[in-house]
Amino acid sequence: MNSASFEALKRKKLFLFDIDGTLAIGDTLYEGSAGLLRHIEEIGGKAYYITNNSTRSGRDYVEKFRKAFRLETTEDQFITSGYMTLRFLKERYADAKIFVLGTASFVEELRKNGLHVTEKAEKDIACVVAAYDSELTYDKLIQACKVLSTTDVPFYATNPDLCCPIDFGFIPDCGAICNMITASTGRKPLYLGKPSRAVVDLCLEMSGFSREETLVVGDRLYTDIACGINGGVDTCVLFTGEAKPEDLADTPYPATYRFDNVKELLMHCTEAL
Question: Measured between alpha carbons, how far is 247 from 112 in angstroms, rounded to an integer?
């Protein structure tokens, strides 16, 4: 990257952050994350957290940020894949029966918002939705496969992430669960969270900032960086999670910026002023 690229960092006001593997891992905030968030506030900017973790609601994340990270946030700053899926389903399947493979909290969140949800292969199902499910059972997989194999209803999923970062490494995420279903049924889902450009468009609409003022920051090329590219904004990959420097040699999702960690990104943001 040349100096002109770094110069553009000082014009960024809207930062769209992935969380796990980017700003933090589990309950541990990476060095530099709090400083970067303070910097954004000082320059009159805005931070949104665009996570593909559908197991937590915005309310859950506000509590986590307060307790684990000692950071004050508001519920509307969290744009989760679960929230994007909820918006999509309310627009298109408000009065229909929806089969959902997901955690009890995700299912309950959909029901609380007035959606007719079932976890069994019943009659008159209008679509199938799969989410990251830390409570996954084989019976849930059987029920999903039965609906998809015996009907032609649409198949949706919250996010294509293959693995979810954890303190010892990674565990299977929604994309891996969906790959099992696809291998058994031949059906592939339409993913509703990142890398959909709808995530970026919603943040721009809510914040009032322009695409030129926006930066997507994440640790995955095929979700975070692809989301920014699809949304027509600059991107920054941090090598603190899934992506490695060698992955950039041959990728359809080249990031505008690349740094080893969030502390390095903060350094370049503040040096650009």
Answer: 41
Q: Which residues, at least 6 apart from 158, have a Cβ–Cβ distance to it below 8 Å?
A: 52, 54, 81, 82, 84, 85, 102, 129, 130, 131, 132, 174, 191, 192, 193
**Amino acid type, 153:** V
What's the average model confidence in pLDDT over 200-227? 97
Residue 73 three-state SS: coil
Place of tokens 């303070």: 38
Strands 46-49 and 14-17: parallel
Here the tokens at position 8 are 């553009």
What is the reported pLDDT for 1?
A: 52
- 220, two tokens: 């995955």
In the chain, where does DSSP find H-type helix? 3-7, 33-42, 58-64, 81-92, 104-112, 138-150, 174-185, 197-207, 226-230, 262-271
pTM: 0.87
Q: Which distant-in-sequence residues (6+ apart) come within 8 Å of 65 by Cβ?
A: 71, 72, 73
